[in-house]
Amino acid sequence: MRKLLLLLGLFAAGASAAVPDYAGPQPASTAKGDATAVFAGGCFWGVDAVFKHVKGVSKVVSGYSGGSAATAKYMIVSTGTTGHAESVQVTYDPAKVSYAELLKVFFSVAHDPTQLNRQGPDRGTQYRSAIFYASPAQQQVAQNYIAQLDKANTFGKPIVTQVVALDKFYPAEDYHQNYLELHPDQPYIVYNDLPKLGELKKEFPAYYKP
After folding, report:
1. Are 93 and 36 in contact, with CB atoms under 8 Å apart?
2. Could you tell me the pLDDT band of residue 28, with boundaries at 50, 70 and 90?
């Protein structure tokens, strides 16, 4: 598998910068119950695992966003020609964790938002950094937060994360779901994704759940 061939000698942790809390306006919300957010930050295995360990998150699904249903299949998406990005759909309780807090985790430990069309050992537009917003409120918070972080030069270089409207989210094949928990000893996971969970626990103990 290509990912295994690329991992030797490479390490893909998150951005590792000290990311400040979101300081922008909080849009009023009248929604009750669970909400969903869709993020893309490289291979979905690690992003999925990070959000599964965030308090207030009840479900995470790996999948594809940005392309059509006809091409939402791993072997085609992996060619980088379909417009899809490997993504995760996060179901969360806004009363326990806010969208801005999820974004802080996304920018801090889930991936590096300054890498263009790549993440660690993986290359291609299917591994781009993107926020697929499902509402104007999500769009506003995402754009404001990126502007805040760029103004503060948080990462030492510009954030390249796309902020685009969510059209459809297509769940990935069953063998991609919950991948880290099912394959904790797989070399790609050991070198690229398990360190992200360590960073989550270290940097965000109040957010972390076993």
Report:
1. no
2. confident
Residue corresponding to tokens 């990912």: 3
Pick from 101, 3, 111, 94: which is nearest to 48 by CA?
Answer: 111
Q: What are phi and psi of 183, to 5 degrees?
A: -135, 55
Look at residue 159 and tell me whether its pLDDT is greater than 90. Answer: yes
Looking at domain 2-6+33-202, which of 3.30.1060.10, 3.40.50.300, 3.40.630.40, 3.40.50.10800 is its CATH number? 3.30.1060.10
Number of other residues whose CB lies within 10 A of the CB of residue 162: 15
Contacts of residue 56, defined as CB under 8 A and 6 or more positions apart, other chains included, come to 92, 93, 94, 95, 96, 97
Query: Which secondary-structure segment (H or E) carries 197?
Result: helix 194-203
Please list the active-site residues: 43
Tally helices (H) and strands (E) across the chain: 8, 8
- Structural contact between residues 163 and 143, judged by C-beta atoms closer than 8 angstroms: yes
* Conformational region of residue 156, where left means phi above 0, alpha means psi within -120 to 50, and beta covers everything else: left
**pTM beyond 0.85:** yes
Average pLDDT over residues 140-165: 98
Burial group, residue 8, by CB count within 10 angstroms (0-12, 13-18, 19+):
exposed
Q: Where are the domains of the chain?
A: 2-6+33-202
Q: Which of 25, 17, 29 is nearest to 143 (CA)?
A: 25
Q: Which pLDDT does position 16 carry in this prediction?
A: 53
